[in-house]
């Protein structure tokens, strides 16, 4: 049960990271017309605690949907409902039908929370982009190449996660090791770094047998 909960929580963290990374990846491939759009008057961009107008908020939500940046969150609600169903069914198997029906009936209630998430995230964009700039971005994402990017970026980000994790792990270990080496060149002595630990699954080195 706990492993299942950790798995779902891990998926949420990955999806959240993918959403942020997706924005960066999207910006990197936007056409010059979208990247170099003529800035709208500063007054159109809310600052500080200013609340966006309903039109600005709606445009930002439309951008989120068109870009596919938050599409990964669509699966979280069904996953949590399935998780709750499995947990409670395991506790009371004789109520499995009732539990399943209860979970299904709650879908509309929790889908409203999905709308709340879009509205909350959209506000971050209304404080950094004018309504006109968001419309220009929407125009890009509604183009053939924009639609392809929105569809493929989540898959690319998911598949690239192991690459990023491996790169950061190797970088961390490499930095620790090289700093220690440079200190030792100057006569200092540091303890072992994580890079020196045996890889998971590797058998520890055996001490040499004493001479007979």
Structure summary:
The protein is mostly helical and 212 residues long. The protein has 8 helices and no strands.
Q: Give the overall shape, derived from the CA principal axes.
A: flat
Following the backbone from N to C, one meets helices and strands in this order, namely: HHHHHHHH
SS-based class: mainly alpha
Question: If you compute it from the alpha carbons, what radius of gyration comes out, rounded to the nearest whole angstrom?
Answer: 25 Å
Major sheet summary line:
none
Number of helices: 8
Percent range for β-strand residues: under 5%
Low-pLDDT segments: 1-46, 207-212
Estimate percent helicity.
Answer: 55-70%
Mean pLDDT: 77
DSSP E strands, number: 0
Termini gap: 54 Å
List the helices and strands and how they pair.
Elements: H1 2-29, H2 32-35, H3 54-67, H4 76-91, H5 96-105, H6 107-126, H7 131-141, H8 144-185
Helix pairs in contact: 1-4, 1-8, 3-6, 3-7, 4-5
Question: Which terms would index this structure?
Answer:
68% helix, 212 residues, disordered C terminus, 8 helices, mainly alpha
Describe this structure in words.
The chain has 212 residues and is an all-alpha fold. The protein is built from 8 helices and no strands. The protein has helices at 2-29, 32-35, 54-67, 76-91, 96-105, 107-126, 131-141, 144-185. α3 packs across α6. The longest helix has 42 residues, at 144-185. The protein is flat, with a radius of gyration of 25 Å.
